[in-house]
């Protein structure tokens, strides 16, 4: 669920319908997305915390939620309050660092991609175009944990 566009209570009701039909087979992914795409100008971290609070109040168990976390602050939040993280388009180095922040016992479900192309510049251009994200063309990778 995108925290900017989806209502936590509505999503929680959908979660409960799915859980009733397919017990323990569904994880709810929660993510901030790209704030610049949305009109909201509130703090993304606070918005995510509020969303997790609302999902919890609506009865969604913490161990059935994963967060699309990239940076260390959100990784720590997810490690403390959810089953784990599902970072997308990350490097193996990001995954190693994410594991060290999360600690053992939490889900770490990274999205790794590979492109076979011997020319590094052509590979990067192809990957950026394939991803279809203007942000990837103009900004450094969000997956850096600096």
TrEMBL record:
This is Flavin-dependent oxidoreductase, F420-dependent methylene-tetrahydromethanopterin reductase. InterPro entries: Luciferase-like_sf (IPR036661). It comes from Amycolatopsis methanolica 239. SUPFAM superfamilies: Bacterial luciferase-like. GO terms for molecular function: oxidoreductase activity, acting on paired donors, with incorporation or reduction of molecular oxygen.
């Amino acid at each position: 669920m995108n925290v900017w566009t989806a209502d936590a209570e509505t999503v929680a009701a959908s979660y409960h319908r799915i859980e009733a039909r397919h017990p323990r087979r569904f994880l709810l992914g929660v993510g901030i997305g790209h704030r610049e795409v949305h009109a909201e100008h509130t703090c993304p971290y606070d918005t995510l915390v509020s969303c997790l609070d609302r999902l919890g109040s609506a009865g969604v168990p913490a161990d059935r939620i994963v967060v699309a976390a990239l940076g260390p602050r959100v990784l720590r939040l997810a490690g403390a309050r959810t089953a784990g993280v599902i970072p997308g388009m990350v490097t193996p180095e990001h995954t190693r660092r994410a594991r060290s922040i999360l600690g053992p016992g939490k889900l770490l479900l990274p999205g790794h991609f590979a492109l076979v192309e011997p020319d590094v510049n052509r590979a990067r251009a192809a990957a950026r175009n394939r991803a279809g994200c203007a942000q990837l063309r103009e900004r450094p990778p969000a997956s850096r944990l600096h």
